[in-house]
Amino acid sequence: MTAPEQLKEDMKKELSDGAAKAIKQHNELLKSINAYEEILDSLTPFQIAKLEHFYNRAEREAWKIAGFYKSQYQFYFGKASTERGQMYVYERETNKMAINDSNYKSKIAEGVNLERSGIYEGYYVTWKGIALSYQGMQNTLKDMMKAIVVEGGK
What is the 3-state secondary structure (H, E, C) of the chain? Predict the structure, then answer.
């Protein structure tokens, strides 16, 4: 059994080119977002709209990343069931193991994949939450624009 931190490190090598590109793009967008947020109280309406644009783009990248992790989560979750079944049948038919012995041995194969699946599920939930938080920030910025108009700004 691999420790979770080592497994996470090993899984970084499985990152697709598309997901790696989305993460890089997301991190670049965060630099722009952070720069604007440092001077949030002095932003012009155009700059607020631009910040909203950056949040929108960051949201799209976060959804791409979440999609990658969801697909990996589902792949390993399905693989767990498939390998468990194959191991069970193999041990029963080829090695003539008893039902209980082949059942427990097949659970080991299942568990290895469920470990990976669980980590990918955690990453998926995290990135989904990040994407949804960006939607909230976009709505907040729209409210700021409305407040500027109410206060007599342009």
Answer: CCCHHHHHHHHHHHCCHHHHHHHHHHHHHHHHHHHHHHCHHHCCHHHHHHHHHHHHHHHHHHHHHHHHHHHHHHHHHHHHHHHHHHHHHHHHHCCCCCHHHHHHHHHHHHHHHHHHHHHHHHHHHHHHHHHHHHHHHHHHHHHHHHHHHHCCCC
Inside any domain, residue 134: yes
Q: For 50-64, what is the mean pLDDT?
A: 97
Whether 55 maps to a domain, the answer reads yes
Per the domain annotation, does 128 fall within a domain? Answer: yes
Task: Please give the tally of structural domains in the chain.
Answer: 1
Predicted local confidence at residue 154, as pLDDT:
62
Compute the Cα dihedral for 79, 80, 85, 89 and give only its sign: positive
CA dihedral sign of residues 12, 18, 24, 30? negative
The predicted structure's pLDDT at residue 99: 78
pLDDT confidence bin for 53, thresholds 50/70/90: very high
Residue 130 reports pLDDT greater than 60: yes
The widest CA-to-CA distance across the chain, in whole angstroms, is: 83
Chain-centre distance for alpha carbon 150: 38
